[in-house]
Amino acid sequence: MFNRTLIQSALLAIGMAASTASFAADPKLQALVKEADAYRMAMDAGRVETEIRSFKGGQLDKTRNYTVYLKPGHRSLVLFNSPAERGQKLLMQGDDFWLMMPSSQRPLRITPMQKLLGEASSGDIATMTWGEDYEAASLGEETVRGEACLKLELTATRKGVSYPRVVAWLAKKGHAPVQAELYVASDKLAKVASFTLADAGDAGGRRQVTTMTLTDHLQKERRTEVHYLSRTAKTLGDEWFNPAFLIRAEVPQ
Questions:
Q1: Is domain 27-246 given the CATH code 2.50.20.10 in the classification?
Q2: pLDDT tens across 19-46, in order?
């Protein structure tokens, strides 16, 4: 079943009393952040097969599988594939999230911070586009995990993001994401994300993020791995991103 136990104090509402940026967006920094997005998202529209592994006290607790369909305009559809959750669907349109349960005739409004499994929220898996949703400011340079990095502070520019503030480290060479601190509306550090990259044959050999590891700073014993198993250009028609239509129809696989 969908885990409702964690709903953050205000919204990463992928509500938010975010601090507002007091600076104009630097086009050069915004371009760097969009480069980092290309390693994580790889495409504006398509299908991503995802496996989430939840660890507690260093031991594997649960594993779940999801299919994520992406469309331009901040639209995502998540299908729940594991036996314990099969038939559930999660839809994101802009700042709005709905959960469809097999036994219900009505879509349920939820927040992006409501969890899928472990410490992976619906916002974490459905969307996290830094280049479109945040303004970037430079915090200098640091070495992280042995990699020379540019350190950036990202401040949310719209309501429907999971985290109002992100501190991100991008590799100086190539600007791939290395690490990110994810802050909730109270400005508490919620999670630290680290990114593992590998060459991807389905993207012309370009390196892509294959795993995002989320270390929880609110529940110290928790760690979650989001594995991106495959990415393809296949997507769905616009009608499937309408909650009224989706609640009545079975999504073709």
A1: yes
A2: 333 345 689 999 999 999 989 876 778 8
